[in-house]
Amino acid sequence: MSSRPSPLDLVADVAAICVEPTPAADRASAVLQRIGEAIPLEAAALATFDPVEGRHFTVAEIGYSDPVLSYLNDGFVNEDPAFLTMRFRNPRPLRWCDIPNYRNMFSAHEVFIPGGFAEGSTTCLFTRDGRYTGALHLSSDSPLPISDSAIETLIALQRVIAPVMDAMRPPVGHTWTDLLEEAAEAALLTADRRLVTLPGLRRDKWLADDSPLVAELLAGAEGAVHRFAWVSPTGRCHEVRRTRLAAGVLVTLREAAAPYRLSPREVQVLTLVAAGLGNPDIGLALSLSPRTVATHVEHILAKLGCATRVAAASKAVAEEIVPLPGPPATPLLVRT
To answer: Taking every annotated instance into account, which residue ranges of this chain make up the domain HTH luxR-type (predicted)?
Structure first.
């Protein structure tokens, strides 16, 4: 194989690297090495954008000093006008030579040139559905810019490399569009039990910080239940979905009828049955008499085709009708 592959060879090779079953950092390093075989450069870096922290982090790099890398992940991505143009207006990669007087602007004059570079380019990375995931930086000590054909190759590589840098990448077999299908609200549940707003997605009602659902999500047990029915304080039934991503757990909410034609009240009762509460405690939580609770339990057993409360609770958790029980708490549920 030629040490200088054609643009098509380069795109094919990078695509093959990106789907290898290896850690993202290893794939990113291999991508940079492959790009360096085709495009003259002295330094290169791939950074991911973490939507939880709202910051960029280097995943792999070649040839940059720590001060330059630090600037690329902070001042450059937050203040450089050329970068902001690429991220928010026109995603086409830009070279220094594409920006009038760039050598006298802060990034070049104060950081890149003192760092030993005379030209460079940055490519913002976007997935097929338009989400920004990070950036590819290339720098050279030669004043000659990379070629127009190399820019076209970088454009082809934007969506190839973007998934490797994607802190919000969906599980295998899913797309971001699938995960958000018909969702009225969405947020990210972090490993340290915080619910974070994601760019472009709503969480202004039942996923807002003061919502009873958020309290249940933060207190709930983690496990294999990826979805469950939840009744809002207005008495409407919703489907809550939880999908594990690299950056945390994506939580989505949409209004939907419960399985097995369960009424909203029956969903509430079944949730508390699965949590191990007896009829008196369920009645106390929902302001119902024990007799009324017993009637609801009878209807639930009939609809689920179960003979006992234990069987109904097991089926409800196994079929993801209700969440796994968390620590005991007083549910904040609808009162009708």
So the answer is: 255-320
Residues 155, 223, single domain; the answer is no
Domains held by the chain: number: 2
Alpha-carbon distance 119 to 117, whole Å? 6
Q: CB neighbours (10 Å) of residue 207?
A: 24
Of 262, 285, 270, 277, give the one whose Cα is nearest residue 318: 270
**Alpha carbon 183 to its chain's center:** 15
In angstroms, the CA 262 to CA 237 distance is: 10
Residue 299 shares a structural domain with residue 266: yes
Structure tokens at 131: 């989400």
Q: Which residue has the tokens 């030579």?
A: 97
Q: Give dist(CA 320, CA 335) in Å, integer.
A: 24
pLDDT digit string, tens, across residues 164-181: 999 887 777 777 778 888
Cα distance between residue 110 and residue 106, in whole Å: 5
The H-or-E segment that residue 37 falls in is helix 24-38
Q: In terms of Cα–Cα distance, which of 68, 86, 205 is closest to 155?
A: 86
* Separation of first and last alpha carbons in the chain: 73
Residue 326 lies in a domain: no
The one-letter code for the residue type at 330 is: T
What length is written for the chain? 336
Domain that holds residue 58: 7-165
Please indicate, yes or no, whether residues 142 and 209 belong to a single structural domain of this protein. Answer: no
Say how many C-beta atoms besides its own lie within 10 A of residue 215's C-beta: 14
- The tens digit of pLDDT for each residue in 139-151 reads 999 999 999 999 9
pTM for this one?
0.70
